[in-house]
Amino acid sequence: MAARKNCWEIMQCGRHPGGDRLAELGECPAVRCFGAHGIHNGINGGRACWAIAGTYCGGETQGSFVDKVRQCSGCRFFHQVRQEETAGSFVPAQDILVRIASSS
User: Fold this and answer.
1) Residue 28: exposed, middle, or buried by beta-carbon count in 10 A (0-12, 13-18, 19+)?
2) Of 19, 35, 71, 86, which sits most exposed with the smallest number of CB within 10 A?
3) Closest CA to 17 of 32, 36, 38, 34
4) How does pLDDT run across 52-100, given as a tens digit for each residue?
5) Checking DSSP bridges between strand 56-57 and strand 60-61, what pairing results, if any?
6) Structural contact between residues 99 and 39, judged by C-beta atoms closer than 8 angstroms
7) What is the CA radius of gyration of the chain?
8) By CB neighbour count within 10 A (0-12 exposed, 13-18 middle, 19+ buried), where does 81 fall?
9) How far apart are CA 47 and CA 57, in angstroms?
10) What pTM was estimated for this model as a whole?
11) Where in the chain are the domains?
């Protein structure tokens, strides 16, 4: 299977380790969301960012899950992951949240 890119690689937010905006904006919560590691073959929350509060998208930090559902449903990265996943392998946001919560 070809390597799948994480959100910080596609969206170029600069909030990943070594990123150019790390000092300014801080590390993205998706980078440290260990409970989401492996979802959609991503590193930590890198391919499940739409289910993680506090990610930086569209020039602003995204807050609650309700806000994120609205914002992220139109995101090109979200649609890319959906397209890349084979039928039945896309993990719904609710399932991602359960997995993250159970790993805490």
Assistant:
1) buried
2) 86
3) 32
4) 988 877 777 777 777 787 788 889 999 999 999 987 899 999 999 999 9
5) antiparallel
6) yes
7) 13
8) buried
9) 14
10) 0.88
11) 7-103
